[in-house]
Specification:
Keywords: Glycosidase, Hydrolase. Belongs to the glycosyl hydrolase 1 family. It holds the Pfam family Glyco_hydro_1. There is one protein chain. The chain is an alpha/beta fold. The protein is built from 16 helices and 14 strands. The strands form four sheets. Strands 1-2-3-4-5-7-11-12 form an eight-stranded parallel β-barrel, surrounded by five helices. Strands 6-8 form a two-stranded parallel ribbon. A two-stranded antiparallel ribbon has the order 9-10. α4 packs parallel to α6, α8 runs parallel beside α10 and α10 packs across α13.
């Protein structure tokens, strides 16, 4: 099939997605400071449905992490050594034909504590060369400013994002990024999966919940996310002023939820869950808080401190496009306690009998991606960008070194078809960057054995391996997909 047979628009941004804290490594190199991700421990044996155990952290564990130089217990500290191997990896991405690569900038590589007046030149030099190298290979950088990489110092001394001063610290970081990297970067994202503040507050907003009275935690988390909303709007304003033509997007988890059946009570339950999910993009796209959130605060006695002019800031500086992750769908039921449960991507729900599950128990639902795209287009009337989607699975290396990951090809084939179906319905989709296009340390359990990539990295869960890269079968398949602009999925 030729590219002329494709439903995907010309210039569609095919590529892949990574996060600095999961791939860069070099956690103590060139002056980098500790981030919240550097405190994340290896948890391979934790029940995948026990999200408190997977993503919670205690003050004692934070103190232990600060004193430790270990990289086995804290695998994100070594990552896949992208910091030293990025040129080799970019060569592989270019061979696949990537049009874009999603990366993030570690705040602590520029400002070790987040409070410094001037950035580290070593950090500027690293990211400048990373973005320059991407451009030399005709790959558009898609850059996340805050991807679970908050400076540990701010988490310890400013209630994470709870203090208003953190907005100013973040904007200082943004100003350096736009000034130093703006010539290379057109597309930016503010906060990765900003909606995850309640699912895992430590990685998202730097809040260790045991430091606060239980009755104050919810209010603090809402205060943190409000401060992030304001920071997002002001960063968007700054970007437009400093880098004319550049675009800023928000990034949310699309946790699409179905009702178990047509019982009106189940319909209402699923509607509430979906509205709660949309809250975070509503504020950044529509520029105001939904009435149902303000009503909830009133009922619950939650007070969120607004700075003077915050409402106007949110309204005046919305994002230019909406990006999101999509891995699975969920089901709500008023009889949930009597139903079998499944989980995935930090959420739980009732098992959907019509869907298969992955090795990690995540429900696989390509049609849900079509549904989500159409629903978001109708709601926001802005370009959409799928910046995470993928299958975490165990890979087996054959004796000849090849990896036959047909299960991954099948997964992506069906999801790309789903994107095409939405485009045929008039949805404006900018691009598609599958998550973990190269194997990296998993976000939750910090395993390497949970692999997403088209590129295999010789590294095991214990940190043993050569770090050598090799191409999986899916590498060649995705290369063909990009070559034909999504026309040939065979």
């Amino acid at each position: 099939m030729s590219t002329t047979d494709s439903v995907f628009p010309k210039g569609f941004l095919w590529g892949g997605a990574t996060a600095a804290n999961q791939c860069e490594g070099a956690w103590d190199v060139d002056g980098k400071g500790l981030s919240v991700a550097d405190c994340t421990t290896y948890k391979p044996h934790v029940d995948k449905k026990d999200y408190a155990a997977l993503h919670g952290i205690t003050s004692e564990q934070i103190a232990e992490a600060e004193e430790s130089a270990d990289t086995h217990m804290y695998p994100k500290r070594h990552g896949i050594d992208f910091y030293h191997r990025y040129k080799e990896d970019i060569e592989l991405f270019a061979e696949m034909g990537f049009k874009t690569l999603r990366v993030s900038i570690q705040w602590t590589r520029l400002f070790p504590t987040g409070t410094e007046a001037e950035p580290l030149q070593s950090g500027i030099d690293f990211y400048r060369d990373l973005f320059r190298t991407l451009r030399e290979h005709d790959i558009e950088p898609l850059v996340t400013l805050h991807h679970y990489e908050m400076p540990l110092y701010l988490a310890n001394h400013y209630d994470g994002w709870g203090k208003r001063e953190v907005i100013d610290f973040f904007l200082r970081f943004c100003e350096v990024c736009f000034r130093e990297f703006g010539e290379y970067v057109t597309y930016w994202l503010t906060f990765n999966e900003i909606d995850s503040v309640f699912r895992h507050p430590w990685t998202t907003i730097g809040v260790c919940t045991d430091r606060y009275a239980p009755e104050k935690r919810e209010e603090l988390i809402y205060q943190c996310v409000h401060n992030q909303f304001v920071a997002s709007a002001l960063a968007t304003k700054m970007l437009h002023e400093m880098v004319p033509g550049a675009q800023m997007g928000c990034m949310v988890t699309r946790t699409l939820t179905y009702p178990e059946n047509c019982n009106p009570k189940n319909m209402l339950l699923a509607q509430k869950t979906n509205r709660d999910n949309y809250f975070y993009s509503d504020v950044q796209v529509l520029g105001e808080y939904p009435a149902h959130v303000l009503k909830y605060w009133e009922r619950a006695g939650i007070h969120v401190e607004f700075g003077q002019g915050d409402e106007a800031i949110l309204k005046q500086y919305p994002v230019d496009f909406v990006s999101f992750s999509y891995y699975m769908s969920m089901v709500d039921s008023i009889d949930a306690e009597q139903r079998e449960k499944v989980g995935g991507n930090l959420a739980t729900g009732v098992k959907n009998p019509y869907l298969p599950v992955s090795d990690w128990g995540w429900q696989v639902d390509p049609d849900g991606l079509t549904y989500a795209l159409i629903d978001m287009q109708d709601r926001y009337h802005k370009p959409l960008f799928i910046v995470e989607n993928g299958l975490g699975a165990y890979d087996t290396v054959n004796e000849d070194g090849t990896i036959d990951d047909d299960y991954r090809i099948d997964y992506f084939r069906e999801h790309i078809k789903a994107i095409g179906a939405a485009i045929e319905e008039g949805v404006d989709v900018m691009g598609y960057t599958p998550w973990g296009c190269i194997d990296l340390v998993s976000m939750s359990t910090c395993q390497m054995s949970k692999r997403y990539g088209f590129v295999y990295v010789d590294l095991d869960d214990d940190g043993n391996g050569t770090y050598a890269r090799s191409r999986k079968k899916s590498f060649y398949w995705y290369k063909k997909v990009i070559e034909t602009n999504g026309a040939d999925l065979a």
